[in-house]
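Section: Multi-chain targets

For targets with more than one molecule, the full set of components is provided together so that the structure can be written out for the assembly as a whole rather than chain by chain. Components appear in the order listed by the source. The example entry contains two components.
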Amino acid sequence: MGNEVGSEWIRLIVGAVIALAFASLNALFLVWLERKVAGHIQLRPGPKEVGPFGLLQTIADALKLVGKELITPSAADKKLFVIAPVLIFMPVLVGFLVLPFAPELIIRDMNLGVLLIFAFSTFSVLAILAGGWSSNNKYALLGAIRSVAQNVAYEIPLLLTVMSVVLMVNSLRFSEIVQAQGHIWFIFLQPVAGLIYLISATAETNRAPFDIPEAESELVAGFHTEYSGMRFGLFFLAEYTNMFIVSAVATSLFFGGWHGPFGFDMKIPGIVWFMLKTYFLIFVIMWVRWTFPRIRFDQLMNFSWKFMIPVSLANLLVTAVVLKFI
Amino acid sequence: MAEQFLEPVVENVYTLNLGPQHPSTHGVLRVVLDLDGEFIVRTDPVIGYGHRGHEKMGENRLYKQFMPNTSRMDYLSGMLYNHGYVLAVEKLAGIEVPERAKYIRVICSELNRISSHLLWFGTYVMDLGGFTPFLYAFDDREQILDILDRVSGSRLTYSYCRFGGVCQDLDSVFIDMTRAFLKRLRSRWSDYENLVTKNIIFIHRTRDVGVISLEQARQFGVTGPNLRACGVAFDMRRAEPYEVYDRLDFEIPVGTKGDALDRYYVRMIEMEQSCRIIEQALDQLPGGAFLNPKVPDRLRPPKGDLYFGFESARGQTGYYIVSDGSTMPYRLHVRVPSFGNLHVLVEAFQGTLLADAISTMGSVDLVIPEIDR
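Its structure, encoded as tokens over all components, is:
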């Protein structure tokens, strides 16, 4: 018995270390990908000088960030200011513990995995508020206020759409949700929920066109205006890791996780399918960012409260009624 | 004693310094905003950070030597400023200009107007958060800079015009490049339309935003595309035709409401009209001399003064020159359109959201060095 508990702990620790390494590498890769995607959309080559295809560019950038001085504004709330970047990165990391990369590759297959991932992702709002408030800067404060309002508004449709998937499977366990999609992905059964999830997830990660908390042309850099060096780097890292998490969750909930399309696995390992789909969704999020202008704050709130929440509620209701009578 | 000069403290209002170092003020403009939450209660533009004393410099150098200064006031439409300056001095001194030179100046000026509007288009959409159209517009603008570089040898501050003509003739390569560019630019309109004009987010960010009424526009001396967006078809090229504009067929686009979307439409249509002007001017381009050889280096205009207004990319620009009969102007004053366009914002910002203020400020197309001079 004791041996089993011990092996569980080892599994968790090893998993956490791998998750940390993967998160950092993944963020470096995503920053490179983002710049390449942006470049090609904008008729320019993107980074290409450092390393093959510019792959080492982000590593050079990261090294530069590490070497920068960590400036704390003299009027800042020092404790909160230092804690905020750590606070935003840790919850994102927890998400890796429950993500179903492949049937045998889940660090901890919890029966409340879906709940856990969304509970922790809500923490990021707290960190943004702490960072924005403690900077003692009006732009940062405005960004933080916007971020809180936005996240409250978008978390609700996000959870409502997830609920309609959970209702279909009767489980909050990621592995069971993915297994239920062996033949048909839930995006085909729940197209409305899938679409609303993707929109809310973009808003949740503060990505354009919903990037109003850091709206560059209005708020300079929003909540992280006063951050420099690796503290800024952590905010940056968290944003890209968060992007991976929401895409991975979308893959597991709506796009069949480790399954191939319509039950055809084509002898390709599950992890490859999972990663392919996740990175494709990330690409879509990037594509959207480099295409659309930014929505105004009150329009964003209207869109959520007057459109997305009623539609997702109706979707949940219809799902429940249909499930009851079949 | 000092208390009477202090303004009363209003409760629930805080002050935000927008600029002078801010991504959306495009230069060193500082706007002091009093905000209630995100709503603007009071606006106070502060100018003068980029003051270089161009007008004073004008009093200390030959008429000819002031030419480089003109394109440095509005660095985005330097050719238009050169053009207006030589027109003013030519009128003051009574200098004949060959027909060919007039057409060449019109072609180059309109190319410059398109490049200025393209840059505005790119930066405006960037102010609204869309980065990609910015690079598309710069890609197109680059072609114009190459074309103008070919005749003037420089990309932004041209100093291409001379009293009595231009410094270098157009060649066939220039004409081919210009025609090719016009064709290319017209093929891009549909891209811009699909990416920006029809974009639902863009429309929501600009429609009914930053409305400038005709009354306000008149009070603050707003000119150019911003005035035309209010519904007045006032264009110096038509109102007081100079050069060969009365021989060319072009339309003056007008808006209806005077909001940011109207200003956007007016500028986009103006680019197409500039294309038409260039095409007609290229077709009608006569042969002959491109520079009046009789103009002396040390020009001595007769005693007197003169105001000459012309249409720059942002509205009516005017040179007021007082001559005392010597080789240098006694006084040189420039009327710049951006000054009125900036100060009308004090009223346009009232009660709007911060995000709308950015959208409005971008839509009036300010060039700060032109105000500061």
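The domain at 61-320 of chain B is CATH 1.10.645.10 (Cytochrome-c3 Hydrogenase; chain B).
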